[in-house]
Amino acid sequence: MRVRLNNISKEFDGTAVVKNLCLSIEDGEFMALLGPSGCGKTTTLLMIAGIYSPSAGTIEFDGRIVNRLPAKDRHVGMVFQSYALYPHMTVYENLIFPLVIQKKPKVEMRREAMRMAEMLGLTDVLDRKPSMLSGGQQQRVALGRALIKKPRLLLFDEPLSNLDARLRITMRAEIKRLQRELGITTIYVTHDQTEALTMADRIAVMRDGVLEAVGPAELLHEHPPTLFIAEFIGHPPMNLLDVVLEDHEGQLCARLGSLLLEVPRWRSPQRFASRVKMGIRPLHVTLVRHGGYPATVYLIEPQGNQDVIICEMEGTRISLVTTPGHNLAMGDTVHIEFQMDNVYFFDAESGKSLL
Prior knowledge:
The protein is an alpha+beta fold.
């Protein structure tokens, strides 16, 4: 199913929650709606599902406007953050519930329930109540219940938020595998960039009810079109530094306090702005034994196979990523270098990329 959102908006008590959103999701595509809490992504999902009606704009399924089509007739399966399982029903009864509503024959209900149980590894727990299941098993039941009615569109609303870190990794892989096998158009709401980056074909980033950008994960990470995208996508977050761009005998330089950093021609801005932010990811700031620029270690965050070191220099804090074993302590003086081949420049006022 191909989904198109045409300038949809949603207001609650006069407050705009989603504003003139335009987005196309292709047939069989896995699209992530990514953004911080309160940005309007769940409201957008509920409009697609038919639970909310848009205040303005239209929603199309395969070219047909569905604004007035009831939720039950949209051929949509939905998985919620809370799982929304019926506690008094067994796993089997939860799985077949959508088919009971559709008044399907019992033979068909059993056949489909066993198919879902086999697909999702639930055959041994069909007689159990939800309270007797692990978080991962409950999530599988919720997924099976959404899939059993053979939807043409699958919607997820923060489905992994209540799981521990290990289970989240497992369920990410399972959901992605199932989506690829079944080829169902999928829209996945999350605030977790890791989920979006690892699962989706494309990511639509929302901010304050507005679509900030849409594109493949790698493109948004490597070529962020705005300051918000640069800071929001990537871990640890990109360093964003106030600089002044200056020309020194034909060589463009970025002045950071008293430092003068030469900018390669292929990273030079296409246009200039009165206030500029230079972005560089922590991976592209390195510790050096000789040369470089002096900085003071402000904080060390061990993260297993890497350390994130936050340094202070020229009145600002800069994060870098390094392998463990440097035997550094807070307050130590280190020397760092910027890999200027990997810098970004943004208009500090509009937030737009200057590259």
